[in-house]
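Figure S7 source data.
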Amino acid sequence: MIDLTIVLSASIFNALLGFIVYLRNPKAKVNQLFAFFAISVVTWTLSNYLADNAQAYNLLFTQLTFFFGAIMAFAMYLISNYFPSGRGVNSTRTIQATTLALFLTLLLSLGPWVVTKVTKAQNGVDLHLGPLYGVYVLFMLYAFGMILSNFVRHYRHEGHKSRAQVRILLTGVAIYAGLAIIFNLLLPVVADNWSSSRFGPLFTMAFVGFAAYAIVRHGLLDIRLLVARSVAYTLLISTITGLYIVMIFVIARRIFDEDSVLVQQVLPIVAALFVAATAPYFKRSFDRLTNRFFYRDAYDPQAFLDELNKTLVSNIELGILLRRTAGVIQQNLKSESCFITVRQTDERPFRLLGTDAPKFKADQLAYIYSQMAEMGQKLLIADDVKLEHSKLKRTLNSGGIALVSAPTGYEKDNPALAYLILGPKKSGNIYSKDDLRLIQIITDELVIAIQNALRFEEIQSFNVTLQAKINEATEQLQRNNKKLQVLDQTKDEFISMASHQLRTPLTSIKGYLSMVLDGDAGQVNEEQRKMLQQAFISSQRMTYLISDLLNVSRLRTGKFFIEKAPTNLATVVQQEVDQLRESAKIRGLELNYDQPANFPTIDLDETKTRQVIMNFIDNAIYYTPSGGRIDVALTNKHKSVELTVTDTGIGIAKKEQHRLFSKFYRAPNAKRARPDGTGLGLFMAKKIIVAQGGAIIFHSQPDKGSTFGFSFPKK
Ligand code: ADP
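Tokens for the predicted adenosine-5'-diphosphate complex:
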């Protein structure tokens, strides 16, 4: 019973694998040969079992076992010739010779020359060997020798990856051949006991498994899932059958009477139910076990994409983005390396970043990309590159590149912005169809992230240029400002110098005019007096103007000083009013001032204050149409003294008022009334009054009149 379980499990397993491998690629020679080989193994296994157990036909099945054994060796020999690439290493003559040897051996094995007779033994049968048994062994040894030498030859000539495949297959062959020769040929002869040959089928499983695995790793096939599942199912069937047998035949027979109803009818049902109930558990366990073995490089695509997206979204600096993304891809796909390249343009350099130092050069990449474009391929898989593209294949292999992926939308005339380059999987497995699908998605997402990063880079570099431009402009402004300051200073110095120069001749003009007016140069008639008066007023105005200019320039150069002395303000005001009376009279204005008696003396800078008073009255004269009146009042209040000049003139619009007292400011109505003003008088007035601790008085109503003045607190 145990023998039957072994035989059935091994047969199912081997047949399944043969079937799967064949279906995967029915046109490939290696796959066809593998299927042929798997069938020969199954037939050999079955006849081997029947040789021991088919009562009447023991001899026939024993001979068939030898027959199929030879076919099996021959199939393996053929595989060894073509595996893994499909190119043979033996000459046609060698193959023909081996085929001939096979036919002879097959003929021998079916006649009485290898096995003449079988006799029933305790465990199966004992063989009586024929005279040509040695020839059979010789053929088998020859076949195994050829198999080994072929594999060695392939091993020498193939690339890194194929070598790994040959190595695996070779390991399988070695284990199988070793065990088979020991248990099926040597031990039985030496010990004269054929019972050890019952383990033969087990070795075939190991061998077929190895062979299938070797093919699994081959680039063109992706049958891992199916292999894993066949292994799981075989294990499941064997276990369940084993359990069933153990329950019914071993336990039940020992404990109960073999012929009882319980054993005959109830127990099989109980056992079947038990098996049915436990089957899912076993299936899960075997699935898990096989998954672990076959999918060491498995990953959860969703988790992978999530991690990738997080990396893509959270990094905007291109260098970091590329390096981190390459790391995530490499870790998840368990590749040996991962690189990302970004195309060069006029504005930016070519980038190549990844998990490692690349084994390829930029010009090799350019060659690979151009080949991809030529072939119109978005995805280049090194293993799938046809032999006629030998240069491309070499470039990929020497660069350790297993796969190159370009984004969707890439065409011959529209080169890709970025490429994803992957090294081989660490496990040696190939990239599965699912991997490739995922890689395509990743590449597309990657390109979008790279575009964003490049935009960010552009903005950043634009910022840098902008900053540089601003700095440059600022420097220019600062330089110009310095120049302006120097010019301004020169201007101040010039005004100051000119004012000083103008003042001396003006004083003499004023002096002489006043003397002539006073009659010192003889009698002046009324007409002459009027003219001279006009000339005197103008020169007086000029004196004040010059004073203003001087004071302004003193303010700027820090040479504006207040020199206080006890001053009789009442007389000062009187003198200023007297000075301007003539002027007012000419313009048809009434100018009133009542000099207060016993007015206290105050500490003031007399010259400067005099100028302020003069300015207030002078403005009132100019900005009051003829027929108006001007009242100058000096009042001694409880806590302060106060001077006001009130007119009935043009006044100042509300919205202009806040700008009075600033340098050069002149209201529009004032400009019309008197085009030649300077806008300096009020500005200086405020400076002078405030500098002496006083305050300006001002209120005005447009078209009604204004009041200008100042107040000083009494000590
Ligand atoms: P200027 O009289 O040379 O224009 P000021 O500094 O003395 O310069 O006066 C500044 C401005 O104040 C004048 O242009 C005018 O608009 C306004 N202003 C001054 N005094 C009067 C006034 N009595 N009536 C109306 N506007 C005045």
